[in-house]
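=== Per-residue structure ===
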Amino acid sequence: MDVISMKKIMSTAKTEYLKWIYDARMIIIPILIIFLYTFAIEPLLVNAQMMEKPLNLFEPFIAVANSGVILMIIPLTFMTLISDFPKIDTNTVFYICRTGRINWLLGQIIKLVMMAFSFLGVVFIGTVIPMIGKGFIGNNWSNVTLYFKNTFPEQSGNFGTQLIPENLYNQLSIADAAVQSYLLVFAYLMIIGLLLLFFSLIKKKTVGFVLTGAMIILGTGLCSLNSQLMWIMPMANSIVWIHFTKYFREPVKTIGYSITYLCVFILVLLVLCLISIDRFNYDNVSEIAS
């Protein structure tokens, strides 16, 4: 039985996280930010210019975290950035021998937390920075969000008005919407990473990558169809506005339900990873990495 060492755990997490930060795939991040600006921020700014009113600084992030299309792109981008997680090669095998299986695994889990939190943090910052000087800070929705449709009824169907639906601004304060959106999407990213970790530990890395991608795409499709089956997928449980109707206080699904669902999903995957690491055989590195 390995002796749990916080020093070894944090050393593993820090070393692996820094390698990830400097990976060449990070070139995808600026491309993602440009896409988010074009797809989400710009339409909101166009509406704000038409009304000559400022947006709330956090409304673009809320729009990004609650768009079905974008919430397919963000997980797929994250999965691409961590596609080799956990990175296992000959050097890693020796590293596991020195640190111990459990310490290595816990280090990988902490690394995943850091990756998911920082990736989503970059998305958050990438949506806030373009709003500096163009928006205000407060716990109230902007007049653009609340009254644009009434002010410009002929523009009520434009894309900017659909980014933040009534289900959000009629039911939640902007602070609640932003915090809940961040945490639920963060949990979704954790599930993606833990799935890749689990399948890697059972030597089915390629299968895990394909199944995780399928889970993201299927979840997006079920949300688009508004099928009740969407609630069995992480996707729907990470989109805040889907939980509410436009006007009635009674939710379609409570946020508490989704928090429980996501936490149980994560807990089950953690248990499976702990079981798998105990049976983990790294005699054949090429087999593990495939």
The CA atoms of residues 62 and 177 lie 7 Å apart. Confidence is low (pLDDT under 50) at residues 286-290.
